[in-house]
Amino acid sequence: PDLVAHEAGFRFAVDPTAGHKTGFYLDQRNARRAVEHWATDRRVLNVFSYTGAFSVIAAARGAQSVLSIDSSGPALEAAARAEARIAEQLAGRTIRKVVVAHGRLVNIVVG
Q1: What gap in Å lies between CA 1 and CA 37, rounded to an integer?
Q2: Which of 58, 61, 91, 99 has the fewest CB atoms within 10 Å, measured from its CB?
Q3: Are 1 and 15 within 8 A, CB to CB?
Q4: pLDDT per residue as tens, the chain (111 positions)
Q5: HSE, side-chain direction, 13 A CA sphere, residue 28
Q6: How far from the centroid of its chain's Cα atoms is residue 103's Cα?
Q7: What does the DSSP 8-state code read for residue 72?
Q8: Which is nearest to 57 in space by CA: 70, 72, 46?
Q9: What is the pTM of this model?
Q10: Cα Rg, the chain, nearest whole Å
Q11: Using CA atoms, how far apart are residues 57 and 85, in angstroms rounded to an integer?
Q12: Which uninterrupted H or E stretch holds 12?
């Protein structure tokens, strides 16, 4: 995608032609900002993670672990790209990604 959302020092790809709406929910800005303040040293579960913005922010702000769950493989691929863009800020922490289809766990990818 040609569009990039800049928020809290992070860059998130935005593709308004595919996926859900713009691919980056602006109405969640305050919630993402809250994650910045409480993620340090915590275990974070991001259900319906979509592009992984909450996961990326939590990991970069020092979460012990982050688990992202979504029913969309392409959404989690976008989340992995967002994670790769901030790899140096993760200081060795990884974000585990889980794909769920129809309520059943079908695949786990450790990044």
Answers
A1: 29
A2: 91
A3: yes
A4: 567 888 888 877 777 777 665 567 788 889 989 998 998 998 888 888 887 888 888 888 888 888 888 877 777 787 788 788 777 767 666 677 655 544 555 455 444
A5: 15
A6: 20
A7: -
A8: 46
A9: 0.76
A10: 13
A11: 12
A12: strand 10-14
Q: Residue 57 CB: number of other CB atoms within 10 A?
A: 26
Question: In terms of DSSP bridges, do strands 3-7 and 10-14 run parallel, antiparallel, or are they unpaired?
Answer: antiparallel
- Amino acid found at 11: R
CB atoms within 10 A of CB 3: 13
Question: Each residue of 19-54: b (16+ CB within 10 Å) or e?
Answer: beeebbeeeeeeebeebbeebeeeebebeebbbbbb
